[in-house]
Design a protein that fits this description.
By secondary structure, the protein is mostly beta strands. Helix content is about 0%, strand content about 45%. It has no helices and 11 strands. Strands 2, 4, 5, 6, 9, 10 and 11 form a 7-stranded mixed beta sheet that branches. It has a 4-stranded antiparallel beta sheet with strand order 1-3-8-7, with no helix packed on it. It is globular.
């Protein structure tokens, strides 16, 4: 079963968005899960990782503004985003891998992405 993101859209600077990723096949396993984004003309970058022991890692660019978590009631991985900036405009992807160090590598399972646009 694949991953499926939702919740993207357009928001003004300073606003908030909640991204969700349907992850029924992964949410209760030992897979490490995370969120990435890709801005136009840029490489895909890791934003937030959540290990099975609850440990989280955040990129410096989003630390303090974004929060990753699991919702076991709905089998989803979420990314709560606050204080959004124009630089946050990108395609956002949910990802899963057997280990956090493998997130972003060839063995990563990816969703199809959801677009976030931050503009006035």
């Amino acid at each position: 079963e694949r991953l499926a993101e939702s919740g993207g859209g357009s928001v003004q600077p300073g606003g908030s968005l909640l991204l969700s990723c349907a992850a029924r096949s992964y949410i209760r396993t030992t897979y490490c899960m995370g969120w990435f984004r890709q801005r136009p003309g840029k490489e895909r970058e890791g934003l937030a990782f959540l290990a099975t022991d609850g440990t989280t890692q955040y990129a410096a660019s989003v630390k303090g503004r974004f929060a990753i978590s699991k919702d076991y009631a709905t089998n989803t991985l979420t990314l709560q985003m606050h204080e959004l900036k124009s630089d946050d405009s990108a395609m956002y992807y949910c990802a899963a891998a057997r280990e956090c160090v493998r997130l972003g590598t060839a063995t990563t399972v990816w969703g199809q992405g959801t677009q976030v646009t931050v503009s006035t």
